[in-house]
Amino acid sequence: MWTQDYTPLGGSLAWSTLAAALPIFVLLYLLGVRRRPAWQAALSGTGTAAAAAVLIYRMPVGTMVSAVGYGGAFGLFPIGWIVFTAILLYRLTVETGKFEIIKDSIGSLTQDRRLQALLIAFAFGAFIEGAAGFGTPVAVAAAMLTGLGFSPFYAAGICLLANTAPVAFGSIGTPVITLAAVTGLPLERLSAGVGRICAPVSLFIPAYLIGVMGGWKASRRVLPAIAVCGASFAVTQLLVSNYLGPQLTDILSSLATMGSLVALLAVWKPKDHFELGGNAVAQAASPRHARSQVLHAWSPYIVLVVLVLLWGFYKGPLNQVSLVFPWPGLHEKVIQTAPVAASPTPYRAIFRFEWLAAPGTACLIACFLTAALLGMSPGAFLRVLAKTFRQMFLSLVTIASVLALAFLMNYSGATATLGLAFAATGILFPFFSAMLGWLGVFLTGSDTSANALFGNLQVVTAGRLGLSPVLMAAANSSGGVMGKMISLQSIAVAAAATGMRAAEEGKLFRFTLRHSIVLASAIGLVTVFYAYVMPQWAP
User: Fold this and answer.
1) Which residue, among 26, 75, 15, 65, has the nearest Cα to 48 in the 3D structure?
2) Residues facing residue 326 across a β-bridge
3) Peptide bond into 339 cis (omega under 30)
4) Whole-angstrom Cα distance, residue 509 to residue 507?
5) Contact 297/102 with Cβ under 8 angstroms?
6) Residues near 235 by beta carbon (within 8 Å), at least 6 away in sequence
7) How far apart are CA 524 and CA 416, in angstroms?
8) What is the pLDDT of residue 130?
9) CB within 8 A of 239, min separation 6: which ones?
């Protein structure tokens, strides 16, 4: 048994925080300054975290190695599993020529790149986030935008920016449900709190997205679409999260948004012609296809949506066949202490090999059904499978390395040190409460993991400062959604989905970083408003 020490450098929180942040500094330096590929940055960051864990935090070497293996395994399954099967599904539609028909069907609605981004990256991506989460929406939506003629860089960047508003309620509300389990706070109040913080920001995310694509000049010509998209999503998100709970928030919000946009496009079209730099020029008019052809082409994604929804709603029974076991050399071998835990508590490490319940398995079954529906031979299917694996190999290395880094920082106590530094901000804590969630998702790539990591710390700190524990816990989940776009896991998923060159991953990180900081700060300011200006509006 080994006990965590959150201030290992002479009992100083300041010096210990600098030590804990060393792996993050390495990541930022290699990605942002040296412009190295994400897999190299991830491996280097993991090596730095391992050295810090052993030399500074005095973590036993065997326990450190076990934590790295635990994180790497989680990175490959279920995260890498979901991403791989999502890209495989997309490749099947491309190889059979059906994606051209999908592209034409979208083009018949609109050839405008701005509206395509709102439809695919924001609305359809939010639906996939609500049904599956864990990287699936970025993988699917980015691949679709690339097929529509977006450059790999812009397709990846736009989808990462769009995959913000729905993240807190992703995968049938898993992040909020996890937050309630960790903190012991009422699920309905946490759901309401996350909705009240996220909805004001969701309202202007479509405008922000189009502004990034083309500035005010590009935005003002599509203001009706921006307004309809933002209002339909934000209002539905607020109402469902407050009155129905977290499970259906994303699904209903995205359906309302897609329906509203399609209805608008039936009576309105932008008057200008917009092209996004570095992208293929959109066709003047898309070929028309018979309704049966369009339905056949879309059948892979229809099957995917149906299966993912079924997997989400029947996850309990499906989990009965999962392989669940304590991770060797790590489970309850580490002791968490105050203030991270109320009393000395063994840190659990249970690995769930949900071979049937994982969304990636639903996606794989969708791939098999797609091959049959589209008339693909077994040999052709295997060739696409091999091609997809070659395309994704380095991305899978990145994902496994990033999760190894995150889990090692968690079990060594380094992440808790960073959290305590945020908690020491006193009256400014409502703002930094959201930033703590942002940091958690940057490190882990998952809002669910960030809630499990920092949820209890938020509640403890709120009690010490006389703040609402529900609001601070909700701020953790809400702020976390803006860290999704800069996590190396998300960067790797987006790069793999679009076929982006490895050299451009650092550029993509720098592109999303400034937007991530701006939007996370907006969440922090909304939290401050509820904490000090209108506390009666807080849940």
Assistant:
1) 26
2) 350
3) yes
4) 5
5) yes
6) 199
7) 20
8) 81
9) none
Question: pTM for the full model?
Answer: 0.76
Best CA proximity match to 155, nearest among 144, 171, 166, 165: 144
Q: pLDDT at position 132, please?
A: 66
Which position has the token pair 């290699």?
A: 30
Enter the tokens of residue 389.
């694996």
Structure tokens at 424: 């020491």
Least Cα distance to 434 among 414, 417, 454 occurs for 454
d(CA 401, CA 155): 24
Average pLDDT (205-221) is: 90
| Count of CB atoms situated within 10 Å of the CB of 343 | 7
- Range 106-141 burial, b when 16+ CB lie within 10 A, else e: bbebbbbbbbbbbbbbbbbbbbbbbbbbbbbbbbbb
pLDDT reported for residue 328: 96
What is the four-CA torsion angle of 100, 101, 103, 105, rounded to 10 degrees?
Answer: 170
Beta bridge partners of 345: 336
The closest of 140, 160, 135, 137 to 79, measured between CA atoms, is 135
Evaluate whether 253 touches 233 at the Cβ level (below 8 Å). yes
State the alpha helices, DSSP H only, in 425-504. Answer: 429-444, 447-465, 469-480, 488-498
pLDDT digits (tens, 9 = 90+) for 167-182: 888 877 878 887 887 7
Residue 137 preceded by cis peptide, ω within 30: no
| Per-residue pLDDT band at 281 (split at 50, 70, 90) | low
User: pLDDT, tens digit, for every residue of 74-84?
Assistant: 888 877 787 78
The helix/strand/coil state of 346 is: strand
